[in-house]
Structure of Flagellar motor switch protein FliM:
Amino acid sequence: MSGEVLSQNEIDALLSALSTGEMDAEELKKEQSEKRVKSYDFRRALRFSKDQMRSLTRIHENFARLLTTFFSAQLRTYIQITVASADQIPYEEFIRSIPKMTVLNVYEVPPLDGRILMEVNPNVAYAMMDRLLGGTGTSHNKIESLTEIETKIMSSMFERAFENFREAWATIEDIDPQLSEFEVNPQFLQMVSPNETVVVISLNITIGEASGMINICIPHVVLEPIIPKLSVRYWMQADKKESLSAENHLIQKEIQKAEVAVTAELGTSEISVQDFLMLNAGDVIELNQPINQPLTILVGGIPKFVGQPGKMNKKLAIQVLDTLKGGDDDGER
């Protein structure tokens, strides 16, 4: 059977057709038993799994939210940006699908190789620029005759907008987006070979009365080094590591506040119980600690340092000379 999942409306329509006799259940079984041949276009080879595409969609949903906040603050008007779709297609097909004259921003994303293309519908781009210059956000599509000032304003605006791309990708890779080209004719732009697989993330954008699309084209060569990081397993492991790291940091912070007793051991001696019972005030007990040897300093009853006794501000003190190492107690420092 086909792996296609039917919607509830399609299921209801199918059951209705079977009950009214418009479709025959036996014919359906016969069709399912027959071998089906499905054509495959090698030019549209799928190089990303559904799992990886979902991760890319998740990243760009976050990017869409960041762009909404950025443009709302810059243009001071109602902005709504959402992810419409995420597909993998040949680069040639993407170029054919966009307008002949449009706003094209090409970004480098070091340390990743290759470049990313962001295509902005001219209606949206002009509405943004009109609003930025104090207008009402009216769209005038005259992309063929952009002036140098308009080109500078647009490129500067989209360069600052794409800085949010760094934050959106922070959980996967630390990138540094940089605008390298601003173009209006896609025929003059050849980023990769025509048959190269690219991921196209389409965003719906509404600015006041104007609406349109923003398409982000990411070639396979850009994503290739980080493909393992796009799996759900990586996201779960990253979340688990962050949780453990936060928990360890909290434990360390609480331990640092704990109070421990620090004592300096002047020496030790062994006497019999009989001698101990006969001790009186003024008696002297000889210790086994030479006066030319450093004293042992205990932290919480565990030997940790060695030092020399003395006075500081008319008070008894001890100066730490070195750290005691070795044994099981060393791991508890």
